[in-house]
Amino acid sequence: MTDYYATLGLAKGAGVDEIKKAYKKLAKKYHPDVSKHDDAEKKFKEVLEAYQVLSDPEKKQNYDNYGDSYKNFQGYSQGFGHGQRMDFDFEDIFNQFSGMNFDLGDIFGRRSQRGTQDHGSNVKINLTLSFVDAAFGTTKEISLNRIQRCKKCHGSGAEGKLKTCPTCQGRGAEVRQQRTPFGVFQTQSTCRQCSGKGKVAEKECGECRGNGLITKKEKIKVKIPPGINTSNHLRMQGKGHEGKDGAGDLFVVIYVEQHEVFKRNEADIYAEIPISFTESALGTTVEVPTLLGKENLKIPSGTQTGTIFKVRGKGIQKLNSKSFGDEYIKVIVETPKKMSKKEKELLQKLSKEEKVAKERNSFFKKIFKKF
């Protein structure tokens, strides 16, 4: 005996809501487009048959009372019933509960065509900014080929009046029959000719050729906020391609060029400055570059090469914030490659006074004693 309740994972006598909920869950699970089960198609057909019987009050009552013998009762036709119309769109059920676009026609080797969407699609463009423009913000003008509603026909596609769609007779939907191993059943889908509107043009608009949409080059101003960085994107609502029922959005993806002096990490910036041997030894005050100009930085005596100094608040303004990052200055002590005779003499005199060599010799003596 075929146990339709067990097929749907239900107890005998389950209510309408339980049956519908179980069916939608299993139809999604075993749909051949997404299921990895080896017998997905077979399972899907079993679920479909069980739902067809249990969702019909008369068939359900006969099945509950007589089991498989219910097929002998008047009013039952094998499978889904020859020419019997189902009161829902299978494809809409899949789309609603899975977020994916399924096509029931695939199961039986045929693809049913859906109506075209009337909402405009999103547009993505890349925009390159200089380091400074990204740091301080700016306004850029971009050009793009954008699909827009035809101004002549206001998006209707008609030059004058509209008439009832001859394909769907104004219903906005097409009813189609499909023959399956269980019989013939009917499904309903959006009309392909009128896209669900129920109306078509008596005479096509000469500007858009009945499409209701045209492609035009458009200039759009993009406001860049300070602190934006590579891979950030700006969303401009309603600036994507237009459709008959609304426009998509424009996404501007940012790429920031490198700077010849500064490097960037989020809102902090980094720079290197050279100082001489004597400046590092004696200490000094040097000018360092910042995004807002030059700043004085005090270098204490004895500063070693690679020492990093922090200049607070001299970085980049944080995105969507009033606070700023910091600037980090790395000191590079330069060793002269060429020296005058006098410079060499002075360094030789200094070398005799230095304690470093004596301390180094003492260090090596301690090391060698251990061996």
TrEMBL record:
Alphabetical list of InterPro entries matching this protein: DnaJ, DnaJ_C, DnaJ_domain, DnaJ_domain_CS, HSP40/DnaJ_pept-bd, HSP_DnaJ_Cys-rich_dom, HSP_DnaJ_Cys-rich_dom_sf, J_dom_sf
Domain of life: Archaea
Subcellular location as annotated: Cytoplasm
Molecular function terms from GO: ATP binding; heat shock protein binding; unfolded protein binding; zinc ion binding
CDD domains referenced in this protein's UniProt entry, alphabetically: DnaJ, DnaJ_C, DnaJ_zf
Cited PANTHER family: CHAPERONE PROTEIN DNAJ A6, CHLOROPLASTIC, DNAJ HOMOLOG 1, MITOCHONDRIAL-RELATED
Protein name: Molecular chaperone DnaJ
Taxonomic placement: Archaea, Candidatus Iainarchaeota, Candidatus Iainarchaeia, Candidatus Iainarchaeales, Candidatus Iainarchaeaceae
Gene responsible for this protein: dnaJ
